[in-house]
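chain below, 333 aa
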Amino acid sequence: MLLGACSAWSLITAGAHDGRPEGVLLAVLAVAAGWAAGRIGGALLPVGAPGAAAVAGLVLVATTPGLAASPQISAPLGHTGATSAVLTLSAGAACCAAWAAGTPAVRLALRLLAAGTAVTAAAVGSVAGAVGCTTVLLASLAAGRMRHRGLGVAGLAVATAAVTGTVWAIAAGVLPTGPAAALEGPLTPHRVLLWRDALGLAGDDAVLGVGPGRFGDLSQAAAQALPPDAKPHSASLQQAAEQGVVGVALLAAVFGWVLFALWRSRRPTALVLTAGATLTALAAIASVSNALSFTAVSVGAGLVAGVATARPLAEETPRTPPAVPARGGRLVR
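prediction:
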């Protein structure tokens, strides 16, 4: 229902301002497809499906010069947020597969795969990817010691809100001078200008926004970039600028529902919290980049969430038929 609402609202805002909703619709379809694949794969192959996804992410980064970016056919991957996101999702999938494995040797091999993903991120020059992979691996190891997932899920929600709030504070210029200068350096002044343009466009029409895909047409900072940059490099600020507060609320609701589904999942707590940490790291990356504009990232996010909420068939045991009385006072089954 939430994904359907996201699609419907993108069409409404596009109709109001002559926007281009194709990118949003493709992203929604990619998340739904990844979710379905994760649910099916997690049920049939709880170790093999996420393990194969982790390897696929590594192969994609190592061999493909570009990933499909909606609505374009292809766009250079480079050392952008998409690289960091794919590698982080790969590390998370490997850690989820490790917690689903039944033998220590397989579990160790999958964790080494996650560690190798972090090394790969550093090798290709993706600092954010290396940090994301390492964070997911450490969080996965710590998740093995937690017995109550509610506190962990709540912590992930608070961490996501803190990152998003910091990005909005930078865009609004309300941070103190010292912290603001320390953060704006690594983020680059151009990205901060894009965020401020996005916040300004959101203020022009707080309800409907300027329409999907129209940020690049109206942002002065985007037009001055070489080549022109059509994205504000922040998922929440892009939603605010192009689809208003309703779009932001829908994006937050989708993430909140995923956390709720993880909390209610029947999978082991360590696996659930590992998936939650992976998606939280992805949310942090998407808060400062255009990672969610890439179809492969949307599919990977849905797949990790689907695997963590699937119900593996191996856990289902046939019910024992009830005992019935027999002659001689004995019970037979």
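The CA atoms of residues 221 and 315 lie 54 Å apart. Confidence is low (pLDDT under 50) at residues 67-79, 316-323.
thats it, cya
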